[in-house]
Amino acid sequence: MIGSQSLLSWTFACYGAGAVACLLLRPARRLSVLAGHLGILAGAVLGAALALRVLLRPSAPVEAELPQLLPFVRMSLRLDPLSAFFLLVICLVGAAAAIYGPAYLASHGGAKGGSVRGTVQTVALALFVASMALLVCAADVFSFLFFWEAMTLASWALVVSETDDGEGTRAGLLYVVMAHAGTALLLVAFLVLAERAQAFDFAALRAAGRCLDDSTRTVLFFLALAGFGGKAGVVPLHVWLPRAHPAAPSHVSALMSGVMLKVAIYGIVRFGFDLLAPAAGPLPPAWGWTVLALGTASAVLGILYALQQHDLKRLLAFSSVENVGIILMGLGLAMRLARTGSALSGLATLALAGALLHAANHAAFKGLLFLGAGSVLSRTHERSMERLGGLARRMPWTAWLFLLGAAAIAALPPLNGFVSEWMTFQALLLGGVRLGGSPGLAAAFAASMLALTGGLAAACFVKAFGVTFLGRPRSAHTEKATESPLSMRLGMGLLAAVCLAVGLFPGGVVRLLDGPVRVLIAGPEPSRALTVRGPLVLSSGSAPIGSSISVTGSAALLLAIFAVGAVVFAWPRAAGRRLAPTWTCGVSPQSRFDYTATAFAKPLRLVFAALYRPRRELVRGEGSTTYFLTGLRYAGEVVDLAETVLYARVKHAVATLSRGVRARSTGRIHGYIGYVLLALLATLLLYGRS
Amino acid sequence: MSSPLATALIDYLGALLLFTMIVILGSSQLYRTIYAVAAQSAFLAAAAAVLAIATRNLDLWVIAGITIVVKAVLLPWLLIGVVRRIGVKREIEPVVPTLLTLAIAAGTVVLSFQLAASLGAVRQTVTGNALPVGVALTLLGVLVMASRKTALAQMVGLFACENGIFFTAIAVSQGMPLIIEIGVLLDVVLGALVMGIFVLRVRSSVDADIADLSRLRA
Amino acid sequence: MPGAEAVLPALAQAALLVLLGPLVSGVIQKLKARLQCRAGASVAQPYRDLAKLLRKGTVQSDTASAFYRAIPPLVLAAVVCAAAMVPVVVLPAAGGFTLGDAILLVGLLALARFLTALGALDAGGAFGGMGASREMTVAPLVEPVLLLVVFSVATAAGTTDLGLIAARRASDPAVWHSPDLLALAAMLVLLLAETGRIPVDNPDTHLELTMIHEGMLLEQSGPGLAAMALASHTKQLVMMAVVGALFFPIGLAPRPEPLLLVPAALAFLGKTAVLALFVGLVESSYAKLRFFRLPQFLGMGFLCAFLALALRVL
Amino acid sequence: MEASLLWLLPAVPALTALTVLAVRSPRRLAVIDLMASLAVFLLALRLGWSVVQHGPVRSGLLGADAVSVVFVLLVGLLVAAVSVYTLGWMPRELAHRGIRESRLRLYYALVHGFVATMLLTVLSDNLGLLWIAMEGTTITSAVLVGFHGHRYGLEAAWKYIIVTTIGISFGLFGTILVYAAAAHAQGGALRALSYQAIAAVASQLDPGIVRIGFIFVLIGYGTKVGLAPMHMWLPDAHSQAPSPVSALLSGALIKCALFGIIRFHTIARGACGPEPSGTLLLAFGLVSVVVATPFILAQRDFKRLLGYHSVEHVGIVALGLGFGGPVGTYAALLHVVNHGVTKALVFFVAGDTISRYRTRNMHAIRGLIGIAPFAGTMLLCGAFSLAGVPPFSIFVSELLVVRAGLGGGHYLAVGVFLLMVAVIFAGLVHHAGAMAFGAAPAGADRSPSRLSPLVGMALLGAVMLLLGVFIPPGLDGLLRRATEIVLG
Lengths: 690, 218, 314, 488
Hints:
The structure holds 4 protein chains of 4 kinds. Chain C is mainly α.
C-alpha cells in the first residue's frame, strides 16, 4: 500500500512521462500517440485511486510542497475532499478519453493532420488533463492561476490545431480572449484577498476572508463569479463555448465540456463556500439569488438553443450550458440555505449534494455523448445531422451507448441524470416551502423552469439520437459507415457504466459527497440525510416531511415487467413477423422522406420564435411560377441573442473607436513636438507648484 | 566686479536673449532667424564672461570661448552652408499663424516666471532672473520647432532651446563641470551634423523638405 | 426483501390500473357515441382489439433498427411502473419502503414518451417524424404543468410522495385551499393533453395533419401495437388516478383489509367515472385546436399551476 | 579590477566600432562583430557577478550599482543575441538589397558605437555624463534608423532625432535644476553632478526645484522612453530600422532612458517624498497603456504593432514604479528585463517573417507556422508572453505590478490597466493567430531558415520561458538590492 504522498507525485509523473515519451517517439507517429495516451491513462487511474482514498477515508488531507521556483511565492498542493471529488471526475473522463484517443486520432485527426498534429495534440492533451488535475489540487493563488492559464492554453492549442480552415482559429481566438478576460477578474479577486492576507496560500486567504466586511466580500465574490462563470459558460458569457468545444478533437471536446466546465464550478464553490465564507452565520443572500438566477437563465436558454442546432457537437456544447445552469441552481440554493439554522441546513446539504452529483453526472454522460459523436464523425466525416441517419444499423454499439447517454442527459429514470435532478427538485421545492414569501416563490419558479428544461432536454435528445442514428442514411459517407474500433467503444463503455452505476445505486455514490459537503457547509452529511431509509432508497429530509424514491427498486420492477412483456409479445405466433418498406402513401420510400433536424425542431422554433428570431429564406428555382416550381432552396438559421445583442455591438464600438483614434493622428512632426511641449506645460501647471 | 552689478548684467543679457528669441519666433526670414540665433549665442557667451569676471572662475572663461566659437560661429555657418546647398526658399511658412505663436509665447513666459516665483528658497542660488528666463527660452525654442515647417527652422529652434539651457546652467551655478559642458557641446555639434546630412540626403533623393514628410502615421 | 408489505399493494394497484385502463377508454368511446346519437361499440371493445392484435403477426419496417422490437414492451413497462407509484385504493404505510414519488412518476412517463418518439423515428418516413416532433413539442409544455400541480399540492403536504400527500389530505380536509381550484383546473387541462384527447389531439383520426400520438404508432403492428395501445390506456387511467390522489383522496383504505378495500374501490370507480364523463363531454363538445394554438391552451394550464404554487408559497 | 571593468565595458564596443571601419570582407566583419558582442556579454556577466559579490563599484565618472547592473546585463544579453541573429540575417538582407555591401562596415561600426553609448549611459555615475551618453545613443541610432536610405527611413530618422533631442534637452534642463539644488545644498564642484553624492544628500535638497527638475527629466527622458503622449516618434523609428537594430532599440535603448528616469526618481523620492514622482509616473504609465491600445487593435504594420507594444510595456514599467513600494519597484525592474528579452525575440521573428513575405502588412502574412515552424511557434510564444500569459516571463512581472497596485489601493488604476491589457490581449492574439495559422500565400519564401537566427531566437526564447517559471536566486538578490537602492 503506497502512501498518498507518493501516489500524488506518481500521478503527475505519469502525465509528464506520457508527454515526454510522446515527444521522444515522435518519428514513430502511431507509437508516440499511443505512448502519450498510455501516460495519461496511467495518471488518470492513479489519480482516481488517490481521490477515492481521500474521499472514502476522511483522514488528514494530502499535502505536497512544489519546488519553490519564484522567490516570492511558495507553490503547494493540498488534496482535501472537495478537491478529491473533482479530481475523481477529471480522472474518470480523462481515463475514458485516453482509452478512446489513439484510435480516434488515427482515424480522424491523423487522416488530415500527419504526424506533427498527432504529437502536438497528444502532448497538449497530457498538459491539459494534468493542469486541470493540478488546478483542483492547488493550494495557493499563484499555482491556481498558473494552472488555470496552462489549462486554457493547452485547450486552446487543441482547438486551433484540429482544423486548417479559419473556423477553428476564430473559435480559438474568441475562446482564449474571453478566458483571459475572466482570468483578469480572478486576478483582481485573488490578489485583493492575498493583500488582505499578506500571503498567497489558501489557508491564509481563508483566514483573511473570515474578517472581510460584507461589501468587499460581495464584490470579490461577484468578481470571481464573473471570472469563473465565463469559463463555465454561464449565459451570457457562454458565446465562446458552442464554438470552441466542437472545434476540438472529440475526446478533447468531451474533456472540455465534461470536465473543464466543472473546474470552473469548482472555482465558484471554492470561492463562495470556502475562501470568502464569513466566520459565522449565513452567506450574503445576494450570492445565492444571483447564482440561482444565472443558473435558471443558463439552463433554459442553453437547452433552447441546443434544440435548434444541426451540428451534433454544437448541440452537445449548448446542452452543456444547460447542465451548468442546473448545477448552478443547486449551488445557488445551497448558498442561500447554508448555515441558516438547523431546519434549513438539511436542505442546503440536499441542494449542494444535488449540484455536486450533477456535476459528476454531467461529466459522465456529456463525455459519453461527445465520444459517441466523435465516433460518428470519425466514421462519416459528417457533422451536420441533416446528412447523417440510419447509423443504428451500421454502428450499433455506438448507437446504443449514445442512446444511454441521451436518456441520461434527458434526466430519464433509472439513470444518473434523473437522480441529481430529483435532488435538485426536492431541494428547490422544500426550500421554497421553508423559505416562504418571495424567496420561496423564486425557488418555486426555478423549480418550474427546471421542469421545463427537463422536457426540452428530452425533445432535444430525441432529435439528436433519432435524426442521427435512426431512419435512413442521408449521405454517401453515412451509407458506408462502419462500427468504430474496440478501443473507442471501450472508452464510451466506461462512461456508460458510470451512468448506469450512479443511476442504479445512488445511495452508494452519495457517500462520496460526505467529505466535500463537510468541507463546505456545516450541515448534516449527505449519506445521513439522503439514505435514512436504507442504501437503496433516496430520501429528501426525514419523514414525514420530505419524500423518497428507490430508483433501484423501480428499475428492478421496470426490468421485470419488461421481461414479462417481452416474452408475451415475442411469443412465436402462427402469422410470424415479416419486413416491409415503411408506409409512405404508396410511394417507394427514400431517405428524403425522413424528418430532418430542422423539420423536427420546427414546431418549437415557432413556439419560441420571440426568443430565436429565426431567419428563413426561400429561393425559387429559375423560371418557376406560383404554381410550377423548378426548384426550391430553403435556408434558415437561429441567432444567439447574446451574440447579436451584446457582443456584436461591443465589438463594433471598440473597432470604430480605435479606427477613429488612428485617423486622428497625422504623421506630421510638428504634432509630435507639439504633444511633447503640451505634456510638459500641462505637467508643470498641474504639478509644478509646490 | 561686484555681485549686484553682475546680477544686473545677467538680467540685461537675459532680456536680450528673450528678445532675440522673440525675433526668431516672429520673423519669417530664414537668414534672419539664423543671424538671430548666432547673436543669441554671442549674448550667452557674454553672460558666461560676466559671471567669469564676477566669480573669478576660469572654467567659465573656457566655456565662454567655446560658446563663441561653436554656437555663435560654427553652427550658424553650418546652417547657412546647408541653406546655400539646397537653395531653400527664404520664406518660412509657419504651421501655426505667427500671431498665435507669439500669443502662446507670451503665455509661456508668464508661466515660467510664475513657476520660478513659486520657488522661494532656491531663487537665492540663481543669479537674478536667470531661472525663469532659462525656462522661457527652452520652452520657446521648442515652440519654434513646433511651429515652423522647414527642417532648418527646426534646427534653429533647437539651438535656441539649447542656448536657454546653457544660460540656465551658467547662471544657476557657474556652469556645469567643464568636461560635461564640453561633452554636451560635442553632442550638439554631432547632432547638428547628422541633421544636416539628413536634410541634404532627403533633398537629393526625394525633392522635399524632410520636416514635411508625413507618410508614417498611426 | 425490505418492505414487501409496502411493495405488494403497489404492484396490485398497478395491475388494477392496467386491467381497468382499456375499460375506461371503452366507456369514454361509448359516451361519445351516445352524445353523437350513435349506438357505438361496446365498452369492452378495447379489450377485443387488444386480444385481436395479440393474435396477429408483425409487419416491421425494413429500415428499423434492432431496437425497434424492444420499444413496445419497454414503453408498457415504464407506464406500468409509473402506475405503481399512485395510491388507488390503499394508502401506503407511513415511513415504509416507497417505490417512488410524483417526480419519478413524471420521469417514467417521460421515459415512455421518449421511447415512443424514438420508435416513431426509427421506422423513418414522414408520419412517424411528424408525430414524434409534435409529441416532443407538446411534452415540454405539459410536463412542467404536471410537476407544478404536484408541487403546489406538495407544498401543503411537504412531500412529493403521492401516497403521503393523499394520506395527509385525507386526514384533514381543511388542507383544501383556494389554490387547489387553480391547480385542479390546470390538472384537467393537463389530463386532456396527456391522454391525447381533443382539443389537444384526436385519438379517433389518422389524418396526418391532425394526429400526434397515433402518428407515432403508424408503423407498429400486431403485439407491438397492442402493447402501445395498452400503455396509452393505462397512462390515461394513471393520470386520472393521480387527479384522484391529489385532489379527492376520499375513501382510500389506510390498511389493505377487505372491509376497507371495498368502499375504497367503489370510491375509485366513482372518481374515475366522473373524470371519464368530463373527458367525454369535452371531446364531444369542442373542436380540436390548431397545433400552433396549443401553446396558448397549455400556457393557460401552466399559468394556473404556477399561480396555484405561488399562492401556496406566499 | 572591477574599476577597470567599468571602463572596459564601453571601451570594447567603441574600439570595435573604430576597427571595423578598416575591414571590408563581410565574413570577417561578422566574425569581429560576434566576438566583440560575446566579449561584451561576458564582461557584463563578470561585472554583475562582482557587484553581486562585493557591492557597488565606482571610478571617476563611472559607477555601477545593482540598478545599473540589471540594465548592463540586459544590454549585454541582447547585444550577444543580436549578433548571433545578424550572422544569418545579414546575408539574406544583402541578397534582398536591404543593405548595400559597401556600407556594411558602416553599419557594424554604428551598431557598436550605439552599444558603447548605451553601456556608457547605464554605467555613468555622473548625471551629466549620463545625458551625454544618451544623446550619443540618439545620434548613432538615428543614423541606423535611416540606414536604408529610402524616404520612409529618413522621415522616421528625422522625427526620431528631432523629437528625442528636444526631449533630451528637457532632460538636461532638469539635470541642471537638480544640480543647482545640489550645489545649493553642498556647494561643491565636479562631484555635485555625481549621482552617488546627490542621492546621498537627497533629503537636504530643496523640494520645489527638485520637483520641477524631475518633471523636466520625466518629460524629457520620457520622450526617449516612449511614454505617451511623447511616444509618437517611437513606432515610426522602431518600424523603419533594420530588424536587429529594432530589437536593440525596443529591447535595450528605451530601457537605458528608463534608467535615467529611475535615477532621478530616487533623488526626487529623497527630496520630496514618494508622492509627486510616484504620482507622475503612475499617471504617465496609465496614459501610455491606454493610448497604445487602439493603435494596437487597428494595426496593419507588423513592426509598428510591436512599437506600440513597447509603448504599452514601458507604461507598465512606469505603473510599477508609480505604484511604488518594494513589490512595485521589484516588478518594474523585473518587467524591464522581461520585456526587453521578449520584445527582442519578437522583433527577430518579425525580421525573419518580413524577409520571407516581403511585406509587413499583417493581412498579407498567413501560415507562418507552415513555412517556418520554429519562427511561427516563437511568434505565438512571444505574442502570448507579451500578452502576459503564463508560463512566460511577463506574466510574473505583470502579476506583481497588479499586486502592488492593489496593495497600494489604486483600484481604479488597476481596473483600467487590466481592462486595457485584456483588450490588447485580444488584438494581439488576433494578429498573431492570423499570421501563424492558415495557408501561406504562394509568393512566400519557403526556404528553411539558417541556423544562426534560430539560435538567436532560441536563446531569447529560453530566457523568456525560464524567467516565467524560475527566477534564479542570483537575479532575485540583484533585483532586491536594486529595489532597495531605487527606494533610497
